[in-house]
Model the fold of this input.
Amino acid sequence: MMIKLLVEGGNMQPGPALSQKLGPAGVNVNSVLQKVNDSTKSFKGLKVPVELDINVSTKEIGVKVFSPPVSELLKREFKIDKGSGAQKKVKVANASIEDIISVSKTKLPNMLCNDLKSAVKTVVGSCVSLGILIENKPASEIEADIDEGKYDKEIKSEKTETSPEKRKELDRYFSEIKALQEKAIKLEEAAKAAAAAAPAPEVKPGAPATPTAASTKPGAPATPTATSAKTESKKK
Done:
């Protein structure tokens, strides 16, 4: 009996959904939890795909662990809780191409990619959706650079180590970007607060009402004023 699950590495918890899946197999839930948590403890804090192979007759449990989704690996790599909610305006990290190659190598065995270069492009695509810069540039631009062969040397040599000098420069650049983002957010929040605090326009008693769209349509009769009303009365 095969059962597929997505669990938190090293911290799978019991629940109704799990019991429902394991019920037909007749195995002890606590035994399953222990086996899965032992098998996934190296992925602590990440969502991990797991496949259980249960022998219904002998009650033996086999656990096969797959690498976490690319987005989860990137979050761990750059120590971020979540991606950007506004990818074009807010960036959450600045990666080196070596970082991307490292994540790609980890994920490649479970990807439908023919080679490492294809895997790197897939990981770069996830960086686009998460709001992660690569080499001080938007990830979408790096996709074009890869197609042009700019990083063929690093990919072919499977380079995964970023030099301290390069890391320092990447961090410096991201600090500047982050400061600009925070300033923009504060200005936007201040503008919203000012708009919310602004008093509503005062309408004086007896003031003429703002003409409606209907009253200003071409060909519509104008609303008579007090003067025109008197003139019309004298004519009569």
Notes: Residues 222-236 have pLDDT under 50 and may be disordered.
